[in-house]
Every structure is written in C-alpha cells, then in structure tokens.
Amino acid sequence: MDFLKLMRQSPLSARIGLAIVLLNLLAALLAPVIAPYGETEIVADVWLSSSWDHPLGTDHLGRDLFTRVVYGARNTITIAFATTMLSFIIGSMMGFMAAAMEGWADLIISRIVDILMAFPTLIFALMALSVVGTSVMSLIGVIAVLDSTRVFRLSRAVAMDITVMEFVEAARLRGEGIFWVMRKEILPNAMPPLVAEFGLRFCFVFLFIASLSFLGLGIQPPTADWGGMVRENAGAITFGILTPLWPAGAIALLTVGVNLIVDWFLKIASGLKD
Amino acid sequence: MTHLLEMKNIVIEGFSSEEEKWMPIIRGLDLTLNRGEIVGLIGESGAGKSTLGLASMCYTRGGCRISSGSIVFDGMELFGKSDDVLREIRGVRIAYVAQSAAASFNPAYRLIKQYVETPVQHGLMKFAEAEEKAVDIYKRLLLPDPEGIGYRYPHQVSGGQLQRAMVAMAMACTPDIIVFDEPTTALDVTTQIEVLAAIKKITREFNTAAIYITHDLAVVAQLADRIMVLKNGHLVEENNARQMLANPKEEYTRKLLSVRTLTEDRVLSDAEDDVVLEINNVSASYTGKASEKVLEDINLVVRRSRTVALVGESGSGKSTLARVITGLLPPLSGEIRYDGKVLPPALKARERETLRIMQMIYQMPDTALNPRQKVRDIIGRPLSFYFQMNGSEQEKRIRELLEMIELSPKKYIDRFPGEMSGGEKQRICIARALAAKPELIICDEVTSALDQLVAEGILKLLQDLQNELQVSYLFITHDLATVKAIADEIVVMLQGRIVEQGPKKQVLDPPYHEYTELLLSSVPEMDPDWLDTVLKIRKEKGIGLTQDR
C-alpha cells in the first residue's frame, strides 16, 4: 500500500531509474532464458556488426555479444551487490561502535581506517589481490574492506549526531548494552542516509570492479562481465567497430539508473520539498 | 486617523504533504496597529501567532502562503506586491526580532558588521555613520561597554546581551514597526527582565509600533497596549491590555490568566527521616581538573514521596548535578547514597536494580523519544528489560500505564512520537519512567518546552502520580512558578554552589536570601505595572538592572 502510494508520487526521473534497474535485474535473473546462445559459446566470426542473428554483433572470439551482455549483468550485479552489502555491514557496524563507545575505542578504529584510506584505493586493491589471488570471493572481500572505510566515515558521523540525543542517554541509563543501543536506537535513525549512500556505493563498486577487470585483476575470463568485455574488445574501437561500446553503455545505463533512484530517495529522506 | 498598519481578513494556508492539500493556519484575522502602539499576540504553539506576525511584512515561512486579505502599511497595499517592492520595506520600515538570537546571528562576523548590513545594503547610511548610530542604540539598550561590544563575536556575549544586540539590529533603520517573536522565551527570568526593560525603553524613545508575540501573558502584560488572544488561527478575544487582565471575557483567556495558581501545601514534619537519596560533599568537573569545578560541595537530601526543587539560572550546574546522580558524570569527590548505601560513582558499575529505581525525564520530549519507535516499544522496553515481562502481560501493563498518564491506550499505543503533540510526548516519557516502577524520578526542566496550559497538565499529573505511587521527585527547573506549585523543599543554586536550601515556606517567605529575592522578583506578574515597579525598586536599592556577570 505504502509502496504504491510512494510510486504514484514519484517523479518521472525516479520511474525511469526504476525501469532501468528492473530491466537489468530481469536480465540478470532470466539470463539463460533470454540469451540466444551459451555464455562462452563461439558461434560466428569475430567482430561482426549487428544483424538479426546477433543483435549486438559478436566479440573478439566470435561469441554473441548480446548473450555476453545479458550474462554479464548477472555476474557483475551479483558481485557488486554482495560487495556493497558486505562493506556496509562491516562499515556501519564499526562506525556505530566507534560513535557509541567513544574514547579510546573510537580513536583506535578511526586511526586504522585513516591508515587504510591513506593508500590510493586502486593501488591497494591491486596489491591485496596479487597477494590473496583473484578468485571471486577474494575480490568481494578486498573491495568490501576497502569500501567499508568510506561507509565507516559516514555511519560514524551520522551515529555521532544520534548518540548525543537524549533517547540514547535514556537507554544507557536504563542499563542497555552497546549492541542493543546500536541496533535499536542508532540503526533505525541512521537508515535514510545509509540507504541513499548504499545506492551510490553500489555504483562505485560496480565501476571499481569494471576497472579492475579492465586491468585484468577482476573477474577472470571466460566469465562474462561488463568491464572485462570492454577490455577484451577495446582494440576494436581503432577499426571503427562498435563492439566495446555495448558493455560500456550497459555500465553507464545502470549507473545512471541507480543514481536517479538514489537522488529521489535522498530527497524523500532529507524531507526537502521542491 | 488612518492606521499605520491595517491587516484585513487575512487567510494564510500551509501545505500539508500528508493530506496533499492546503490547510488554513490563519482563518480570516484582522489586525490594526497605530504609530507607537504595541500589540501583544498571545496563544499556545500552533495558534498562528508567528505566522500572523510575519504576514505584517507580507512574508510567510516556506510551505505557507497568504491566500487572501489586505495588508495596508502606511497607505500602501502590500499584498500582491513584488519581492523587489517588499524588500524596500522589510528590514527598513518593518523589522523582525527572532526568538533565538544565538541561532539568528552569523557566528563568523562581529556584531556590528551584522548590525551595519541592513542600513548599508539599503543605501541609507555609510558604514561609518551606521557604526556611530549602533553605539547610540547599544547605549539606549543599556548594553555594557556600548563602544566596544559591537566588535565582539556573537559567542563572546551573554544570551540576554545577544538578544538585545538583535533588537539593536532591528532598530538600525529606525523602523516604524518591529515584530518581536518570543524574544525572551529562551532566557532565564533574571535575563528576561533586562531584555524586557530594554525593549520597553527603546520602543518608547523612538515611538516605534510593535507586534509582540509570546505565549506568556504576564510578559506581554508589561509591554502591550492591546492584547489579541489567538487560538487555532481564530481570534478569541481582543482588548485593551489592562481591561483584559482585569476582566477577561472569554473562558479561554480566563484559563490562560489562571495558570500558575496550582499549589499544594503539605505539612513537612521535621521528624521525617525517611531519606531516599543523600548527596554528601559532591564536587564535579567535566575536565577532571579540580581547578575547573562546575559543582562544588553539594549536600542535599531527598525524602520518600517528597519533591525537592533544584532552582537556578542556566549554567548554575543543575543539570550537571543530575548527571552526577545518574552516574553519567562521576564526581571528583563526595559520595551519593541511596537508602543509606553508597552508590558506585560510574554508571557502568551500577547494578540494574539501582538503575531501575532512579528514572529520568527530560526537557525536550522530542529528543528524549526515539522517533522510530512506537509507543508500545518505548514503554514496553523497560518492562521486558527490568521485569522480563513479555507478550500479553506486557501489553496489559502498557495499557495500564497509558491510562495512568491519561492517554487513551487504543488511540496512542501504535503511534510514533512524530504523531503526537509536545504534551502528549512528555506524558509518554513519564510513562516510560513509571514503567520501571521507580522510587525516585529526576525531572530535568520537564515543563519548560511546553505551553503553559499543557505544562500545568503535566505538573498536575506528576502531583497525582506522587500521591498515588509514593515516588520522590528531584525537580530541576529555572521556573519559580513551577517551584511554587509542586516543591516541598527548595534548593537554590548559583554558579555550581548551593546558596540556599530548606522547606518551601522558609525559602519563599521573607526574609529572603539575596539571590533568591532577585530570582523571585524577576518572575513577571499579571500586573501591567509590575515591570516599572520592579525597576523602580531596584533603582532605589541600587541593584543594577543589568547585573552582567
């Protein structure tokens, strides 16, 4: 009921964003049904242009690009979502804890985060991935930890504003433990900015994986992912072939879609009226 | 004679995003103002006082609009005029003084720079001229060091001085009308009297007309020639100030006049030694340094089912003492005993049972309740936390508690704090405290954020609960009317020390302690001559009006 009412009031931009995201999710979920060929199946000559058989043409090995883009949605979105989720769990837990405990605990956690943030993210990720290997799990783990530093900063700042409220003091005077305070008093009130940030972080993670894939340290071939597909086919652009633009376009489209929804959500959460 | 300002049949609407339509705030009000006349607008919050006051310069807050009416100022119709035209009038001929001076000044600029802005912006004066005039106005407003005070930053002057600096700012262009929007509500009584005296003096000297908005009838009685009582955007009563005070016609006005009459006198036998809380020689500091003490050598005793009122201005250490008692701020020295047993100084070291018997109620019900929890969860948590009471048993107890605070369980149990009024929220806070079955409740300024009629209801409730449940109260307040109403014993604090303490009768009846007398004589009375009389007496006695510390 509430959702329907919310949708009715939503601006056009948010609806477009929602449509884009739904389209991507659908593609990800139904990839085997939608895709005309197999994910790694070589079906024709290399770098063909669009045709009825191959709507987006073929890639550098002669695989159907449309099939690859659809499967790529599945891999890329799943990994990006898992990573963002993990980074939010780590980051907000630490952030709330730092704000709720204050003093030494806050100091120690914050300084560790500062140290992590002092390294350029990409360099740090390259270093960490070359140590732990480039499996999907380690990819998720490394990016999540790096990204959680940003989430930590935000959730600590938000939680700081909440912990000075008297209802938190009232809970402490009642004798509540720190985890109860974090879960029941801080978390519900920190939700709006965190959810908005989730959308943005999701985009960044997504782009980050794409750039790691582009550098060859992300998702490994032959698994289809958008960043990797851009890299594999990058050479084609010098011959005037459009192939690499399709996965690049898919990345751009999803990023824009998510951001449109986030903008709308930020507006609702902050209570701003036009 | 034509009026200086004539507002006719004003209708102002606000947009309600919940109902998705414009709802009326002011429903067809008239207001006239003559040169040099002061009109008082009074009513509870939500009555539309500020909205009407701002409309005098054809301005509304965001989300509101003036939908019809006529605003004629000095022969010119303002309603429907463009912003450019209105800009020439706002700030220059009609000025505004807001409630919280601290929030209205830009902390990054010196006072005089902010003073000079309006006249220079409008091209009325050169910077140096305006500066010179500022000193004159500061002098007239009885500010200390008028030549130098303008060169201070907002945080370097006291609250009362800042409010007067704001009045000076409004006076910068010698306007015809000033709209005062609750200028003294956030101030202590002793500071309030300074600001009131300054406002009265300067409006007389410049023959400035004013609209004075407040919820305190006694304050407006000192200044206004005429009073308008508003309720829900309607006019309840309008009359000459003296006539209205002497002879209110409407029931609602009578109610407003009769607040502060709640009293209860209990016989306190000296033999009463059923002491609950005992504070011995407590000193405390926020920095942990003995040289920066905010509390020094505090001794006090709270008896069972009795109320001790802790009185003092802001900064006197009242709330700090509450923090020490609850364990949030362990004291530097001294001890706190409960039922004869010494309590551990820090909160973490105290047992759950100790926490249960001492509950706290806060000043701002808005921040004391988690906005994301329903009433059921707010009151239910102490029940499950202290008594492991869950399920239908808990539900039953929550309903009982809601009955006790006179809110219908059916209506309120599933509400969020945002869906209740200030008074209702404060009642929920009381219920949350009661849920723990406490023996002592610390009430920190529980009524100062509420309208007088609502506050009266809360005090009455607290009194009834005390008689029924035998709880003790430590009642922290700066409002002496509240003290008169409910205290059994009074402790007067000044700058971290206790200056006087004893049974209510002894403290409030002559002979007074010097500081207590200052506090008592600063509480406005419903007598239009009160301010002048007090000022005269103080002048004779040689007590400075502006006792700036």
Written description of the protein model:
The complex is a heterodimer of chains A (274) and B (549). With 274 residues, chain A is mainly alpha-helical. Chain A has one domain: MetI-like fold. Helices cover 74% and strands 0% of the residues of chain A. Chain A has helices spanning 2-9, 12-29, 31-34, 65-101, 103-118, 121-132, 136-163, 166-174, 178-214, 226-233, 245-270. Chain A is globular and about 70 Å long. The relative contact order of chain A is 0.15. Chain B has 2 domains: 5-258, Rossmann fold (3-Layer(aba) Sandwich), CATH 3.40.50; 275-509, 3-Layer(aba) Sandwich (Rossmann fold), CATH 3.40.50.300. Chain B has a 6-stranded mixed sheet, sandwiched between helices. A 6-stranded mixed sheet of chain B has the order 16-17-18-13-19-20, with helices on both faces. In chain B, helix 7 packs parallel to helix 8 (189-206), helix 15 crosses helix 16 (391-404) and helix 16 (391-404) crosses helix 18 (422-435). The radius of gyration of chain B is 25 Å and the shape is globular. The A-B interface holds A 165-167, 169-170, 172-176, 184-185, 188-189, 191, 273 and B 17, 62-63, 326-328, 347, 350, 352, 355, 359-360, 362, 364, 367-373, 381-382, 385-386, 432, 436.
